[in-house]
Specification:
Number of strands: 19
CATH architecture of the largest domain: 3-Layer(aba) Sandwich
Number of helices: 19
Number of domains: 2
Distance between the termini: 6 Å
CATH topology of the largest domain: Rossmann fold
CATH class of the largest domain: Alpha Beta
Helix content: 40-55%
Shape: globular
CATH superfamily of the largest domain: Glycogen Phosphorylase B
Strand content: 15-25%
């Protein structure tokens, strides 16, 4: 059945342009692509998110280590003041303190997306402590080397869910469906359920009514990667003022309160973000009582944003080769400016660039099993390696690994570490790379869309068969390693050995079989343009998720 009103998409982050610092990674890229495709295709949709004044963080090189800094940002020429301020109670009792949220509107024509609303607590109506809750993405914490502030993260999620619903009451009265993008948006569904109970419905009836209005996209295939909060803390801070008993909260989200379980319990349908992730998610969340069915809708990237014009219009292998050479030169020039290293346009250039998370294995090329092989290839001028990505600021081990790789890059030829992995650098790396290296440990990658955009820009994927790569034609990429979960140490060793064998073939083809290489590049480009775009993704949502 077709929808009769707008779809409101709640998302904790959104990536639309370098000048708008409201994202940290692929989750934001997903949301941005969805919003841009909805605008292009005329799908009635609005976005709801937070306005982190300091974004995620700025990354730079400080001597021999990675530096982290937070910069206050203001957007007077980008966002419009809607004039709406909503008070969100945080705490229990009839006199619970309130945090005030100003609602800003991003006009769709600014970046070619649907209208998006941003919630901002950094206003004079809120007390100084409350204003901090939206300063950094996901609530942030103290300095980069402190522990995460779980209390603030919970408040941040409450503000997004409850505050977003209150803002929509004032600004978008014709919402017919709420799409929750990742589980940090769970309190939007809980707020809707609370309203049903206040209207006089019994709990079970209120749950059924809520489910009829909610759909959910899950992105995280690791149980511990999904946020959970102490049930008593949720009850004390949520501000539902007696509408919800602790038993209700426990029925919805278990104990501790699991945000993904709550979303699954309160949605009529949910989706994983690749076919393989769908199988993992069904198993991972089988314990959730009353869970919605989980289908698979593979992510896609917005071609209008990610594919530069020379690659878009390339109508054959030679056109694609010319475009790649042009943008490879631009990337190598950037590397020279940042690091002082002079790379050659004739040498196979491998790029590893994504969130610096443990399961993505940023150091797999330097695993003990193949480290000497990699060093020999770099010293022999057979390959050039570029690594970029941001660790989570509280992940000390990954920050230390970034610094370790930085030190290695200064000792080894043909190896560069680039700071500041955001949208502009990401696009430069994708357009300039010969190989886009993807090394997640199976089955931890839900989708991993960066390789889609790389393929659209003439890069060939070298990847474990995880996430979306499980669906890609093996003729149009290079696959290595395990497709199934195993003991981490054994899998890492075996995958490293398989990566070496794979790259031996890659190097040989690049150097000795240029015609085969270019055919493979062009076929990969065509496949990505056909199967892995956000336009296709949105059509799938319309057919399989948004309709009853």
């Amino acid at each position: 059945m077709a929808l009769q009103g707008k779809i409101a998409v709640f998302t904790p982050e959104v990536a639309l342009d370098q000048e708008l610092h409201t994202y940290s990674g692929g989750l934001g890229v997903f949301a941005g692509g969805l919003f841009m495709s909805a605008k292009k295709m005329g799908v009635p949709m609005v976005g709801m998110t937070m306005l982190p004044r300091q974004g995620y963080y700025d990354q730079y090189i400080d001597g021999d280590r990675m530096g982290i800094r937070y910069i206050d940002r203001h957007y007077p020429d980008i966002l419009e003041d809607t004039g709406v301020i909503v008070p969100v109670p945080i705490g229990s009792g009839s006199k619970a303190p309130e945090i005030f949220l100003k609602v800003w509107r991003l006009p769709g024509e600014r970046y070619g997306s649907v209208d998006i609303y941003f919630l901002d607590a950094d206003i004079e109506q809120s007390d100084p402590h409350s204003r901090i809750n939206t300063m950094q993405l996901y609530g942030g914490g103290g300095s980069w080397d402190t522990e995460p502030n779980t209390h603030r993260e919970l408040v941040h999620d409450l503000l997004l869910g409850r505050g977003g619903m209150m803002a929509l009451d004032r600004l978008e009265p014709d919402i017919s469906l709420y799409h929750l993008n990742e589980s940090r948006t769970a309190f939007a569904a809980v707020e809707y359920l609370c309203r049903m109970i206040r209207s006089g419905k019994q709990f079970d009836e209120a749950v059924r009514e809520t489910k009829s209005k909610i759909v959910f996209t899950t992105h995280t295939p690791i149980r511990d990667g999904n946020p959970k909060y102490d049930l008593e803390t949720v009850a004390n801070l949520s501000g539902f003022n007696g509408t919800f008993t602790r038993d209700y909260l426990k029925k919805i989200g278990s104990n501790p309160f699991d945000m993904t379980a709550a979303c699954l319990h309160l949605s009529r349908k949910a989706n994983a973000v690749s076919k393989k992730h769908g199988k993992v998610a069904e198993k991972l969340w089988s314990w959730v009582d009353g869970s919605s069915p989980i289908i698979s809708v593979t992510n896609g990237v917005n071609r209008d944003f990610w594919q530069v014009s020379e690659f878009r219009v390339a109508s054959g292998e030679e056109d694609l080769h010319s475009a790649k050479l042009l943008y490879k030169r631009k990337l190598l020039n950037h590397i020279r400016q940042v690091t002082g290293k002079c790379f050659s346009e004739l040498v196979l250039t491998i790029v590893w660039a994504r969130r610096f998370a443990a399961y993505k294995r940023p150091k797999l090329l330097f695993h003990d099993a193949i480290a000497q092989w990699t060093i020999n290839q770099l010293r022999s001028n057979n390959i050039q390696l570029v690594v970029a990505g941001k660790p989570h600021p509280y992940d000390r081990d990954r920050v230390a690994l970034w610094n370790e790789l930085l030190a290695m890059s200064r000792e080894l030829p043909n190896f560069a570490m680039l700071p500041g992995y955001e949208l502009e650098l990401s696009k430069m790396l994708k357009t300039g790379a010969d190989i886009w290296l993807n090394t997640p440990r199976s089955s931890n990658e839900a989708c991993g869309t960066s390789g889609m955009a790389a393929a659209m820009n003439g890069a060939l994927n070298v990847s474990t068969p995880d996430g979306w790569m499980w669906e890609a034609s093996p003729e149009n990429c290079f696959l290595f390693g395990s497709a199934i979960e195993g003991a981490a140490y054994t899998q890492d060793w075996n995958d490293a050995c398989a990566l070496q064998e794979c790259l031996d073939d890659v190097i040989a083809m690049y150097r000795n079989a240029k015609s085969r290489w270019r055919r493979k590049q062009y076929a990969a480009k065509l496949e990505a343009e056909r199967d892995f775009t956000s336009d296709r993704m949105l059509r799938d949502y319309q057919e399989h998720l948004y309709t009853e």
